[in-house]
Amino acid sequence: MAEVIRMPLLSDTMTEGKIVKWNKQVGDKVKSDDVLADVETDKATMEVVGYADGTLLYVGIPEGSAAKVNEIIAIVGKEGEDYKSLLDGGSAAPAAAPTAEAPATASQQPVTTSTGVDADTLASQLGVTVIRMPLLSDTMTEGKIVAWNKKVGDAVKSDDNLADVETDKATMEVVPYAEGVLLYTGVEAGNAAKVNEVIAIIGKAGTDVSGLLSALKNPAASTKP
């Protein structure tokens, strides 16, 4: 059965991604760990992996154009397979998915509501970047931290592989899009985190993030006057 590839959520502030380059063309053979495209977000340019074996049947976004998070960008399946029903059935999915799916709604509430003012403002004041579990496939609800490639206290570059994460389809890298020192990790290797859950914080060495963690974990309390 053909697999729909959607624009993944690659950073906590991302709303859309620009296709910088397609590394595969329609008709090309694709492996699950192949880089389908290079995507530019609001923070960096990174790779989008297909998570499926087969043939690239469809490309929905031309190079140089942007797609909203969860919008269909490609379809991978058997050569000659009819995929039109997936496009007809999935055309409304990009707009509906972030609010219609219960797991996504629950995980996103701290970002868009309770932490929308206090926690985000505090993070900005501290000069730190909060790293959340990204949406790495259209069916992903959580990701398992297979390994941390950095430990608290290590220097981090924006293109470093911070952690290896196992989703429901593949294992891939989480890139931080930030430079500084790893101040905090919220999920131990071997454990899972829901999409958009805080997994790490990066900032200047010695920055006290205890107040920020309290605001992130108890958003209701942080918004009380």
Written description of the protein model:
With 225 residues, the protein is of the alpha+beta class. The chain folds into two domains: 3-99, Beta Barrel (OB fold (Dihydrolipoamide Acetyltransferase, E2P)); 103-222, RNA polymerase II/Efflux pump adaptor protein, barrel-sandwich hybrid domain (OB fold (Dihydrolipoamide Acetyltransferase, E2P), Beta Barrel), CATH 2.40.50.100. The protein has helices at residues 84-90, 93-100, 102-114, 118-126, 210-217, 219-222, and strands spanning 3-6, 16-22, 29-30, 35-40, 45-49, 54-59, 66-68, 72-77, 129-132, 142-148, 155-156, 163-166, 171-174, 180-185, 192-194, 198-203. The strands form four sheets. It has a four-stranded antiparallel sheet with strand order 1-8-6-3, with helices on one face. Strands 5-4-2-7 form a four-stranded antiparallel sheet, with no helix packed on it. A four-stranded antiparallel sheet has the order 9-16-14-11, covered by helices on one side. Strand 12 (163-166) and strand 13 form a beta hairpin. Helix 4 (118-126) runs antiparallel to helix 5. The longest helix is centred in the middle third of the chain and has 13 residues, at 102-114. The protein is elongated and about 55 Å long. The chain starts with a strand and ends with a helix.
